[in-house]
């Protein structure tokens, strides 16, 4: 009687690694997963990558590769592979000389204070188009997700963070070709949240003289005060 083989869980044996190549050269992103899968998806930022003269997608068993031909500055971005709901992301940097002066910040990031639960947007403008911007939260690189989005329109770049919590208070940094702009994000409590009691204090309490008594009320997040009529 054959013993049933244990199921192999999906995972990455080797994740994508950042790649740096000279302008007009070829770049390769490679990863290895724990088992063969019928399909993987590649992304440049949030855009799906499909086979073309620019992109070659190679699947060889458990090994997967994305080849980017004739790299240009506008190819600089985060590239992601998605396999059965799991993702690995890495950055492409293209080395070369700028045709004019190096990029600079025309509009820098500004400090912002936002109530928890809301959305914040950090905007900047560069002196050049087609310059990739990498965003950081407390020096940790941010990746696009359900609550973190990035937008680019010409020389303008935007970071959007949704459903903020108090823990999102941090320093935001944008990096463009070795140049930086920073700002502070402060998230404050949303006092507009309705307050209600989960249990009510008894309207009347009769005790024997000299006895101890206590009132108990359940509340959430806010300070609670008891008052005694004079």
UniProtKB/TrEMBL annotation:
Its UniProt entry gives the catalysed reaction(s) as: L-seryl-[protein] + ATP = O-phospho-L-seryl-[protein] + ADP + H(+); L-threonyl-[protein] + ATP = O-phospho-L-threonyl-[protein] + ADP + H(+)
Which part of the chain is the Ig-like domain?
6-93
Matches recorded under Gene3D superfamilies? Immunoglobulins
Know the name of this protein? Answer: non-specific serine/threonine protein kinase
Q: What class of enzyme is it?
A: transferase
The enzyme's E.C. designation? 2.7.11.1
Q: Which SMART domains match?
A: IG
Please give the GO cellular component terms listed in this UniProt entry. Answer: cytoplasm; nucleus
Q: Which UniProt keywords apply?
A: ATP-binding, Calmodulin-binding, Cytoplasm, Disulfide bond, Immunoglobulin domain, Kinase, Magnesium, Metal-binding, Nucleotide-binding, Nucleus, Phosphoprotein, Repeat, Serine/threonine-protein kinase, Transferase
Q: Does the keyword Signal apply?
A: no
Record-level Gene Ontology MF annotations: ATP binding; calmodulin binding; metal ion binding; protein serine/threonine kinase activity
What family does this belong to?
Answer: Belongs to the protein kinase superfamily. CAMK Ser/Thr protein kinase family.
């Amino acid at each position: 009687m054959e013993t049933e083989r244990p199921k192999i869980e999906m995972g990455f044996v080797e994740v994508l690694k950042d790649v740096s190549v000279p302008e007009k050269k070829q770049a390769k992103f490679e990863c290895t997963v724990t088992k063969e899968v019928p399909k993987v998806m590649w992304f440049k930022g949030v855009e799906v990558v499909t086979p073309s003269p620019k992109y070659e997608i190679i699947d060889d068993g458990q090994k997967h590769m994305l080849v980017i031909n004739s790299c240009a500055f506008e190819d600089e971005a985060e590239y992601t592979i998605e396999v059965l709901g799991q993702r690995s992301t890495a950055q492409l940097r293209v080395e070369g000389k700028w045709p004019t002066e190096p990029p600079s910040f025309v509009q820098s990031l500004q400090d912002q204070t936002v109530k928890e639960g809301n959305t914040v947007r950090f905007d900047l403008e560069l002196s050049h188009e087609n310059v990739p911007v990498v965003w950081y939260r407390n020096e940790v690189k941010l990746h696009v997700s359900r609550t973190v989005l990035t937008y680019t329109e010409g020389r303008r770049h935007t970071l959007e963070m949704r459903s903020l919590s108090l823990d999102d208070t941090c320093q935001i940094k944008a990096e463009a070709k070795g140049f930086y702009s920073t700002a502070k994000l402060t998230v404050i409590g949303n006092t507009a949240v309705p307050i209600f009691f989960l249990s009510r204090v008894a309207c009347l309490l009769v005790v024997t003289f000299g006895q101890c008594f206590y009132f108990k009320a359940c509340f959430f997040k806010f300070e609670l005060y008891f008052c005694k009529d004079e």
